[in-house]
Design goal:
The chain has about 350 residues and is mainly alpha-helical. The protein is built from 14 helices and no strands.
Length: about 350
């Protein structure tokens, strides 16, 4: 008992240290994000634009109307996708789980393509609803196909089913793009980026984002138990079906919101939970809050890098994360190769 108490105390201390360090890095990244870009703006001017806004100054207008909402959108998307990855990895015991790899993002993308094709005048709220419904449809198909086996749903079948569904819905989206001449609009949006984020749009999604994040934190103790295995969780009195159902709803909500804001950016939910798990351990009471922070940090940092490496042009977020995420996915797949045999 004493050893267990010491281990828990050490875990809590590590969590606190890494959260403070992550918060400091996020503040630095935030300052860099609102200061750097096609036009560099010094820190004092950026600070003044936030706390002492002067509409006459062009630099203040750039920061207040473009870079500030863009940075906030980066934080929302990064936190959301990282939390989705952590929840999926914990609830399915699948280290390769990610909203992009599981077909969720592609379903939301297809829903957006439908909106562009048939309802071009749809409001932002209606588009958000369609994206969440599209994510729900693709997720249901992924889980259904993965369960069509005598062995039941295994992590490996879940990944393969997710990739198949993702390719299917990507093909549907491409067909709509060609058929209804929305290719340029859809391509710009699917490239991944928050440059077009605006305050009125963020005001709509923010309440849903807060609900999803608070719900994930509330479920974190149950996900820790569920990550031990469904039989163990049931033996400990956990209502596994309820926890999985609520987890799925949160993932659908946060993924749908992220796709609306930035497009189908992949690998954030794959990379961040593994990084966080290495730092704070396997307790999801620590993993989920840390994923929120480090997901936001990673996305803001990647957006800054995308602005700087090819100025004055910008490199889409999806390309930045793919460069890092594909090797990371291959590394994880190699670690899990025995289970695929």
């Amino acid at each position: 008992m004493q050893k267990l108490f010491k281990r828990q105390k050490k875990g809590a201390l590590n969590f606190l240290i890494y959260m403070i360090a992550g918060l400091a890095l996020l503040i630095i990244s935030f300052v860099a994000s609102i200061s750097l870009g096609a036009a560099d703006i010094n820190f004092s001017t950026a600070w003044g634009a936030i706390f002492n806004f002067n509409p006459v100054l062009t630099e203040h207008q750039i920061i207040r109307t473009l870079r500030f909402p863009r940075t906030l959108a980066d934080m929302i998307v990064g936190a959301s996708l990282a939390v989705c990855g952590a929840i999926m990895q914990g609830s399915t015991k699948n280290p390769l789980a990610d909203s992009g790899l599981m077909g969720i993002s592609s379903g939301a993308t297809f829903a957006i393509a439908l909106i562009m094709s048939f309802f071009p005048g749809a409001s932002y709220g209606q588009t958000m609803l369609f994206a969440c419904l599209g994510a729900a449809v693709s997720t249901s198909m992924t889980y259904y196909i993965a369960s069509l086996s005598k062995r039941g749903m295994t992590p490996q079948r879940l990944v393969l089913s997710g990739i198949s569904i993702s390719m299917l819905f990507s093909a549907f989206s491409s067909y709509l793009a060609i058929k209804y001449h929305i290719g340029q609009s859809l391509m710009y949006w699917t490239a991944g980026g928050t440059a077009s984020a605006r305050w009125n749009e963020l005001a709509i999604i923010m309440p849903f984002f807060i609900v999803g994040i608070l719900g994930s934190i509330a479920l974190s103790p149950s996900i820790t138990v569920l990550s031990l295995g469904e039989e163990v969780a049931t033996g400990l009195g956990l209502r596994s079906k309820y926890v999985k159902g609520m987890s799925t709803l949160i993932v659908l909500l946060l993924t749908g919101l992220s796709v609306i804001v930035v497009g189908p950016v992949g690998f954030i939910g794959l990379i961040v939970p593994h990084l966080v798990r290495y730092l704070v351990g396997t307790d999801y009471r620590y993993i989920i809050p840390a994923s929120i922070l480090y997901g936001a940090l990673l996305t803001v940092s990647a957006d800054v890098v995308g602005r700087l490496i090819n100025r004055p042009f910008e490199t889409p977020l999806d390309i930045i994360f793919s460069v890092v995420g594909v090797p990371f996915f291959l590394y994880l797949s190699r670690k899990q190769r025995r289970e695929f045999e």
